[in-house]
Design a protein that fits this description.
four-stranded parallel sheet; 316 residues; alpha/beta; globular; 10 helices; six-stranded mixed sheet; 12 strands
């Protein structure tokens, strides 16, 4: 059973199991790793599946048969939504924006084309925004428009996935599997993972700093934005009957924009070096998110234990 539902047994929080936790933790060269890549029982894994455990039953709760979501042409989120949404009997429509193309993006594009999703590509975020009303009308089921999901699944409902993960980290600390972290590091492409961790760690009574390594410049992603999403998630929990008195403020977390590179999806020398090092350690990262976050971890001299989330979860 979900740790979040155990904590708030009377709350109205639809959930479906899509993966098996807890995901393992282990010590590497000067930091700790939580390997989220193994989470997910379907055609994709990682942090996106954590969010879909809460999002997909919420779509059903809203009586929608189609979901519409957005991302770059190499989106991991869109692929996970397409694969798991299809398994739940949903039609999935993707609005995708061009990004720098490399071998990783080409491979993702092939996976997306084979996923069964209805894919629409746009040259810019502005063009996607202009087309969004058309897509909502085109794929309406009668009077019901598709359930719209923001990039990365980073809505208050999706963010519950990383409130859950933070409670899992707390249980692993209590079991002696890792020391209480002073800093928890994750890539930030849309904010939901960092927001959920910040809120969940507070609910668990732990006080590490969450460091979000920002890898997306398509929209505002700073401590104010991430804290607002965390606070909106706390409000959702209260609305659904959970006794939550936590408030998240911008000074409760850090957002580091120094590892992005030229733009979203552009590789960096530091990221490429981190990618090569990770491969030597048996970690399969990717250049857009996790390699840049790992580069920040390896360059950072932090006081106290550092926990890095490996959130990339490809499947054969």
């Amino acid at each position: 059973m979900s740790l979040l539902l155990r904590r708030f047994p009377g709350a109205d929080l639809p959930w479906t199991r899509l993966g098996r936790g807890p995901t393992p933790v282990r010590e590497l060269d000067g930091f700790w790793l939580k390997d989220e890549s193994v989470f997910g029982d379907g055609g994709w894994g990682g942090n996106k599946v954590r969010k879909l455990e809460w999002i997909l039953p919420d779509v059903r709760r809203r009586k929608r048969g189609t979901l519409l979501t957005v991302g770059g042409i190499g989106t991991h989120w869109g692929l996970a939504a397409a694969l798991y949404g299809r398994e739940e009997g949903l039609r999935v429509v993707l609005g995708l924006v061009d990004q720098p193309v490399d071998d990783h993006v080409r491979e993702q594009t092939r996976r997306l084309d084979a996923s069964g999703a209805l894919v629409h590509r746009f040259r810019s975020v502005a063009r996607l925004r202009a087309a969004a009303p058309y897509l909502l009308v085109r794929y309406a089921d009668g009077l019901r428009t598709p359930a719209y999901l923001p990039a990365g699944g980073s809505s208050p409902v999706g963010t519950l996935g990383y409130v859950e993960t933070a409670l899992e980290i707390a249980a692993q600390v209590e079991a002696g599997l890792l020391p209480e972290p002073a800093t928890v590091v994750t890539a930030v492409g849309s904010g939901g993972t960092a927001a959920g961790l910040t809120l969940g760690l507070r609910l668990a009574g732990l006080r590490p700093r969450v460091l979000g390594v920002v890898v997306n410049d398509s929209f505002r992603l700073d401590a104010v934005t991430v804290a607002r999403l965390a606070d909106d998630t706390a409000s959702l929990l209260r609305t659904r009957g959970a006794l939550v008195d936590a408030r998240v403020r911008p000074d409760d977390l850090d957002a580091d924009h120094g590892w992005l590179g030229a733009t979203y999806g552009a590789s960096t020398p530091e990221g490429e070096a981190a990618l090569a090092w990770a491969q030597e350690q048996g970690l399969h990262l990717e250049p857009v998110y996790t390699a840049k976050a790992l580069a920040a971890v390896r360059a950072r001299s932090a006081a106290g234990p550092v926990l890095f989330l490996q959130t990339h979860g490809p499947r054969p």
